[in-house]
Automatic annotation (TrEMBL):
Span list, region Disordered: 85-127
Organism expressing this protein natively: Geoanaerobacter pelophilus
Keyword Cytoplasm: no
Molecular function via GO: translation release factor activity
Pfam families: RF-1
Protein name according to UniProt: Peptide chain release factor-like protein
Biological classification of the source: Bacteria, Pseudomonadati, Thermodesulfobacteriota, Desulfuromonadia, Geobacterales
Keywords annotated in UniProt: Transit peptide
Biased composition (Basic residues): 101-114
PANTHER family: MITOCHONDRIAL TRANSLATION RELEASE FACTOR IN RESCUE, PROBABLE PEPTIDE CHAIN RELEASE FACTOR C12ORF65
Length: 127
C-alpha cells in the first residue's frame, strides 16, 4: 500500500491497526465520489469523498472531512479499522479515550449525588 499524505508515524500506526484487526487491502472496495459542503469549486469538481466497503463483513465507511482525497483515504481506512476493532472487541486509542470520558462522567455524577443528597435523619430527631 502506498503511504498517504500524512506523517510516517500515522501511516505506520494505521498499518499496525489494520494488521491487528486482520484487515487487508484486498478485502476493501474503494470508491471515490464528489463531496458535499464547504470547499468551494475544488470540492464541486473533484471526487474527494472516499467510500470504503469491507467485503467480508459488509461494513461501509464514507469520509469527506478534508479537501484532499489522499487524506480522506487515510481517514476512511482508520475509521473502518476502528469499527472492525470495536466489532472484534479490540481496544483502540479512540475506544480507550471514550472509556476514560465515561468513567470521568460517572465519577462526577456520583460526587454530585453525594453532595446534594438529602441529609439522613438520625433516630434522635423527633419532628
Amino acid at each position: 500500500m502506498k503511504p498517504f499524505a500524512v506523517s510516517e508515524e500515522k501511516n505506520r500506526k494505521l498499518l499496525e491497526l489494520m494488521a491487528a484487526v486482520g484487515m487487508r487491502e484486498e478485502d476493501i472496495e474503494e470508491r471515490f465520489i464528489r463531496s458535499s459542503g464547504a470547499g468551494g469549486q475544488h470540492v464541486n469538481k473533484s471526487a474527494t469523498c472516499v467510500q470504503l466497503k469491507h467485503l467480508p463483513t459488509g461494513i461501509e465507511v464514507k469520509c469527506m472531512r478534508d479537501r484532499s482525497q489522499s487524506i480522506n483515504r487515510f481517514l476512511a481506512r482508520r475509521e473502518l479499522a476502528e469499527k472492525l476493532a470495536e466489532k472484534a472487541g479490540i481496544a483502540t486509542s479512540r475506544s480507550s479515550e471514550q472509556d476514560k470520558l465515561r468513567r470521568r462522567k460517572a465519577s462526577r455524577n456520583r460526587k454530585s449525588r453525594q453532595k446534594y443528597a438529602p441529609p439522613e435523619a438520625s433516630p434522635d430527631d423527633k419532628h
